[in-house]
Specification:
Elements: E1 2-7, E2 16-22, E3 25-31, H1 44-47, E4 63-66, E5 69-72, H2 75-93, E6 98-101, H3 108-122, E7 127-128, H4 136-146, E8 163-167, H5 171-174, H6 176-187, E9 191-195, E10 208-210, H7 217-230, H8 236-242, E11 243-244, H9 246-253, H10 262-265, H11 269-281, E12 285-289, H12 291-294, H13 299-312, E13 323-325, H14 332-337, E14 344-345, E15 349-350, H15 354-364, H16 376-385, E16 390-394, H17 398-401, H18 405-413, E17 417-422, E18 434-437, E19 446-449, E20 454-458, H19 470-480, H20 489-499, H21 508-511, E21 516-517, E22 541-542, E23 561-566, H22 582-587, E24 592-596, H23 597-603, E25 610-614, E26 619-627, E27 634-638, E28 651-654, E29 661-662, E30 666-672
Helix pairs in contact: 2-19, 3-19, 3-20, 4-13, 7-11, 7-13, 16-18
Bound molecules: iron/sulfur cluster (SF4).
Length: about 675
């Protein structure tokens, strides 16, 4: 039996485990006790992480669509054909008629290779990935406030906090091993404030539970800031020495008294005041947030308001404080870090920065485009307009993950050529012209970067089931297009480090033990558990006044509820992998909608009864879960189920700054179904 140490492929926590391999097959998962993230723990998904890898549904051969049907073909034929079509489209319509979506499930090295392929080979900055639908507001918002768009502190500090403010995040289900750290903090005496329209598990042990309306976060946080400053609980020394823009912020939040926001938030002023006081006056306070904050048309402003609250109280830029954005997918942090974004190269070096561009041009021996490319959101719109002709998507199921499914299908069907690189036949893959079978985490070497900015090793346990890793596929296409690329992950990591100042000290050798937290600017640098110590990355932290704006859709007579969406413990995202694990599917076999018991009674809806949930974009029939745990007037659904796809309902209205869709709040109706 071979035992291979690697990193979990599901959420952004980044737990470490061993894969047990016998006769070329993975037979089990064993947690790694020495892993600094998980310390011998795993959630139920991690324990079963090996099962989808060897599932019979895995794509094993390349497929080309002919006359509406997929035909199995050889790798040679699939790659020749794909390269030929990419070249034809580039020659006919220009480089910006092509776009690439990289994968937050792939390694850093594969993301680096893919963004290089888009820029150096296809000649376009049209490269993006699923952070557009989860944490791009974090990159944008925290970058504006602090100068760096990632978590400020480390998981190891959590158990020693005095106060943890959790808003728009459900750690025990969506990031369970971080949830366990929060529980440890509670056991150690920490007081937790939970702000969420649903009474999540941690709310049961919280000192204060604030059940605000979806889409009212800015009003809530501004009112907390108002109370803190009005009662002289702000950190004047920190504000004076470390920040700018306080007066402008105060001028604006003066209007946001706890009493004045009651109608917007649905929160009693006294509760809000007590929570604000606890957060401000605790010595070691931090904020943890997730997609409940980012997936809004005001996602960037929501994130900025988190930064404002942290700075007003001096709870950032030191140990045992800070802002923890809990990243979604296993390597969404890394995909952003590797420059799989339309405006930056690896390490957030802008494509518009001539010096940075020259450095990449010299290393890659090509001219690179200087204009930022299209975001994923814009790519879909441009496909419908007929401007975007070709899309190459790796490891993403946009038809199921993106808001407004019908619009996404229309966009993908408008393309002249769609290439999908996937491990299973996803709904998006069904629309492809070519499917290139990719490799799972267990079939490759490389690194993932988790939500605490930690690079960790991913190690190959078995040979790629379809014969090639994702990096190899991209490089073989590149070579066919006349540009030689090297897929060896170790060499790619070295190349990335040589071109990226904040990761200059990263190498496979240095990651062997327990990884490294970036910035790692030199080969002898130990990594950085806490950032902005003594000084923010941008110099002074910037207070940016942000005003409450309601969601793009608010309830009305026809659609009187607010629908919000999220994840559960037993599944991950669209469930492409977790729905292929018997134990996980047994626990959680189908979609449902949560409705408050009083609302259910008014509508005559009973527990487990079939109901019809409807929005302006579509409708679904699912079971009702009648519960006290959700706020009156709010509905909530997970989005893991392909045959009952919640995103037919969600709204693709987007944040104007970073183009994230508004998954967390749209107007909906619910009624008993006859089905
Ligand atoms: Fe994997 Fe996340 Fe569970 Fe850890 S918490 S085992 S990273 S899914």
């Amino acid at each position: 039996m071979k035992r291979v140490l690697t990193t979990c492929p599901y959420c952004g926590v980044g737990c470490g485990f061993y894969l047990d391999v016998r006769d070329g097959r993975i037979v089990g998962v064993i947690p790694s006790k020495s892993n600094s993230v998980s310390k011998g723990n795993l959630c139920v998904k991690g324990w079963h992480a090996h099962e989808p890898v060897q599932h019979p549904d895995r794509l094993k051969k390349p497929l080309i669509k002919e006359n509406g049907k997929f035909l199995e073909v050889s790798w040679e034929r699939a790659l020749d054909y794909t390269a030929k079509r990419l070249k034809e489209i580039k020659d006919k319509y220009g480089p910006d008629s092509l776009a690439v979506c990289t994968s937050a499930r792939c390694t850093n090295e594969e993301n680096f290779v893919m963004m290089k392929f888009a820029r150096a080979v296809l000649g376009t900055n049209n490269v993006d990935h699923c952070a557009r639908t989860c944490h791009v507001p974090t990159v944008s918002g925290l970058n504006q406030s602090f100068g760096s768009g990632a978590s400020t502190n480390s998981y190891d500090e959590l158990p020693q906090m005095d106060c943890i403010l959790i808003i728009g995040s459900n750690p025990t289900e969506a990031h369970p091993i971080v949830g366990w750290r929060v529980r440890t903090a509670i056991d150690n005496g920490a007081q937790v404030i939970v702000c969420d329209p649903r009474k999540i598990l941690l709310a049961e042990s919280a000192r204060f539970y604030i059940q605000h309306y979806p889409g009212s976060d800015i009003a809530l946080i501004n009112a907390m800031i108002n109370y803190i400053v009005a009662n002289n609980l702000h950190d004047k020394e920190f504000i004076h020495a470390r920040t700018e823009g306080f007066n402008e912020l105060w001028e604006m939040v003066k209007d946001y008294t706890p009493e004045s926001v009651k109608d917007i938030t649905g929160v009693e002023p006294e509760l809000l005041k007590q929570a604000a006081k606890l957060y401000a006056t605790s010595k070691k306070s931090c904020i943890m947030y997730s997609l409940g904050i980012t997936e809004h048309t005001v996602g960037t402003d929501n994130v900025i308001s988190m930064a404002n609250l942290a700075m007003i109280t001096g709870h950032v830029g030191k140990e045992f404080s800070g802002v923890y954005p809990m990243r979604g997918q296993n390597n969404v942090q890394g995909s952003c870090d590797m420059g799989a974004l339309p405006n930056v190269y690896s390490g957030y070096q802008p494509v518009t920065d001539e010096q940075a561009r020259k450095r990449f041009e010299t290393a890659w021996a090509v001219r690179l485009p200087s204009k930022p490319g299209l975001t994923l959101t814009d790519m879909m719109a441009k496909a419908i307009e007929g401007v975007l002709k070709c899309f190459y998507i790796i490891g993403e199921d946009q038809v199921r993950t993106d808001p407004n499914t019908h619009m996404i299908e229309k966009a993908l069907k408008s393309l002249e050529f769609l290439v999908i690189q996937e491990i299973f036949l996803s709904e998006t893959a069904k629309l492809a012209d070519v499917i290139l079978p990719g490799a799972s985490f267990a079939e490759k070497d490389g690194t993932f970067t988790c939500a605490e900015r930690r690079f960790q090793r991913v190690r190959k346990a078995i040979e790629p089931i379809a014969g090639k890793t994702d990096g190899e596929i991209i490089c073989e296409l590149s070579n066919r297009l006349g540009y030689q690329m090297e897929p060896d992950p170790k060499k790619v990591c070295d190349e990335m480090a040589s071109l990226t100042p904040i990761y200059a000290g990263v190498s496979f050798e240095r990651l062997e033990e327990n990884g490294l937290q970036w910035p790692v600017p030199a080969k002898n640098h130990p990594g950085t558990p806490v950032v902005h110590l003594g000084k923010f990355k941008r110099g002074l932290g910037k207070f940016i006044p942000v005003r409450h704006r309601p969601p793009a859709e608010v309830p009305d007579r026809e659609y009187p509820f607010i629908l919000s969406t999220g994840r559960t413990l037993f599944h991950y995202n669209t469930g492409t992998m977790t729905r292929r694990v018997t134990n996980l599917l047994r626990e959680f076999p189908r979609n449902f909608v949560q409705i408050n018991s009083a609302d259910a009674e008014n509508l005559g809806i009973k527990r487990r009864q079939k109901v019809r949930v409807k929005t302006r974009r579509g409708e679904l029939t699912v079971e009702a879960e009648v519960t006290e745990k959700i706020k009156k007037g709010v509905l909530w659904m997970p989005f893991h189920f392909s045959d009952e796809p919640t995103n037919v309902l969600t709204n693709s209205a987007f944040d104007p700054v970073c183009k994230i869709g508004e998954y967390k709040a749209c107007a909906a109706s619910i009624s008993k179904s006859n089905l």
